[in-house]
Amino acid sequence: MSLGHSLTLTIPFPSSRLANIAERALNVDKELKSDQVKRIITTDDDKLIVTFDCTSVKMLRVSVNSLFDLIIMITKTMDAFDGLE
Amino acid sequence: MIAIGLEGSANKLGIGIIEHNTETGVVKILANIRHTHVTPPGTGFLPRDTAVHHREFIIPVIKEALETSNVKIKDIDVICYTKGPGMGAPLVSVAIVARTLALLWNKPIVGVNHCIGHIEMGREITGANNPVVLYVSGGNTQVIAYSEHRYRIFGETLDIAVGNCLDRFARILNLPNDPSPGYNIEQYAKKGEKFIELPYAVKGMDVSFSGILSNIETIANEQLSNSQYTPEDLCYSLQETVFAMLVEITERAMAHIGSKEVLIVGGVGCNLRLQEMMAQMVEQRDGKVFATDERFCIDNGIMIAHAGLLAYRTGFVTPLEKSTCTQRFRTDEVHVAWRDT
C-alpha cells in the first residue's frame, strides 16, 4: 500500500558495473525513519533505480536530497579513482 | 601490508596510509593528510556543515595521500574507515567513499572504533607497552586500561567531554577556532596570573565538566566587564582545575592496576600543560608519561589505518553490507584480538 507521496529516480551510469557498485554502497545505510519513508534501491543494467514512498512531501524531499548527496559523492569517487593503477 | 584509513567523525577530515612489515613488526607511515573544518570565532561546528566540508575535500585529500605515499592501488591490502563514535552525517559522508573505493578496487573493508584508533596509534608512536590511557578530546573523556582482550573504561565524563568544555569556553571569550580553540586557550592560560576557584567535580572514578563550564561562564559575564579578572586568568584557572581532575582519576587508575605508564591520547592530549601536570604526578610514582604531538593526537586517518590493519591481520573484516556507521560505539565493545591477555 502506498504511503501517499512517491517518486522514482532513474540515474544512468557509464556501465552496469558502476551502477551495481552504487547500489551496493547505498544499500548499506537503512532509512532512519522506516515508518515514514520506504526506499528501494535496485539496478536495471547500467541504470540505478530508486523508488521512494513517503508519508509527507517533506519527508520525501529530505530523503531524496540526502540520497542525492551520497550519490554525488559516489560518482565523484568513481570519476577520481576508478581504474587508477 | 598496506592500509588506507579514512577518518571524519568530527571536524577533522583525515586520510592516512600505513605499512606494517609483518616479519619485522616495523610500522611505516606513508602519508598522513588532514583538512580541518574551521568555523568563525564564537561558533562551533555543526553536523550538517561538517559533512558538507568532508564531502568537498575528501577526493583531493585522498589524492594527496596517494601521491605522498607513492603506493600503487594494487599494493593496498585493506580500506579502513571510522565506524564511530562521532557525528552521524560526517561519518556517513566518509563511509560512503570508503565503500565505493572498496568496491571499485575490489578490496576488503574494516570498520574501526575511533577511540581504539587513538589508543593503538599512541602505543605505536610512543612505545608504551601496557599504559593507563587517558583519552581526552572534544567528544570523549575516558580513563582506560587493558585487560583480557578489551580496553576497559575505568572512569569517564558523566556529561560533556573536557575538550568540549574548553572549546565552548573559547567560544564565550570569542577566541579563534584556528588552529583549534584548545590551542588558543592554552596560549592564553600561559599569561594567566590570578587563580579563581572553580567547582572541582570528581565523582569516584568519573568526572563532570558541565557545571564548571556554567560556573566560569557566569564569572566571565560578571567579572570581565569590571576588569577584576582577565580572560587569561580565566583560561588559566579553567585549565588548572579540569586538568587536576583528570590527573587525579588517572592516578587512581594507575594504583588500581599497578601500572607505571600513562599514555595521553586525543586532541586535548597535545596540551603541554596537561602533559606537564601528568608528568609531575607520574614522577612521584616512579613512572613515565607518554604523549604524542598534534600529528597523532588530533584526529587523523593514520590511526584508523593502523588500528584497522591490526584487526585485519588477525583475520577481521567488515562485510560490506555491515559497513554502517554508529554515533555511539563504546571503547569496550571492541574485541582486541591483536594483543595478548
UniProtKB/TrEMBL annotation, chain A:
Location(s), subcellular: Cytoplasm; Nucleus
PANTHER family membership: EKC/KEOPS COMPLEX SUBUNIT PCC1 FAMILY MEMBER, EKC_KEOPS COMPLEX SUBUNIT LAGE3
Main location: cytoplasm
Alphabetized UniProt keyword annotations: Cytoplasm, Nucleus, tRNA processing
GO BP of this protein: tRNA processing; tRNA threonylcarbamoyladenosine metabolic process
One Pfam family matching this protein: Pcc1
Protein name according to UniProt: CTAG/Pcc1 family
UniProt similarity note: Belongs to the CTAG/PCC1 family.
Annotated Gene Ontology cellular component terms: cytoplasm; EKC/KEOPS complex; nucleus
From TrEMBL, chain B:
Segments passing through the bilayer: none
CC cofactor note: Binds 1 divalent metal cation per subunit.
Protein's cellular compartments: Cytoplasm; Nucleus
InterPro entries membership: ATPase_NBD, Gcp-like_dom, KAE1/TsaD, Kae1_archaea_euk, Peptidase_M22_CS
Ranges in coiled-coil conformation: none
Cofactor(s) listed in the protein's UniProt record: a divalent metal cation
Source superkingdom: Eukaryota
Known catalytic reactions: L-threonylcarbamoyladenylate + adenosine(37) in tRNA = N(6)-L-threonylcarbamoyladenosine(37) in tRNA + AMP + H(+)
UniProt binding sites for substrate: 135-139, 167, 182, 186, 271
Keywords of this entry: Acyltransferase, Cytoplasm, Metal-binding, Nucleus, Transferase, tRNA processing
Main EC class the enzyme belongs to: transferase
Primary site of residence: cytoplasm
Keyword Methyltransferase: no
HAMAP family noted in UniProt: Kae1 (MF_01446)
NCBIfam families: arch_KAE1, gcp_kae1
Family: Belongs to the KAE1 / TsaD family.
PANTHER family, sorted: TRNA N6-ADENOSINE THREONYLCARBAMOYLTRANSFERASE (PTHR11735)
UniProt protein name: N(6)-L-threonylcarbamoyladenine synthase
Source organism of this protein record: Glomus cerebriforme
Phylogenetic lineage: Eukaryota, Fungi, Fungi incertae sedis, Mucoromycota, Glomeromycotina
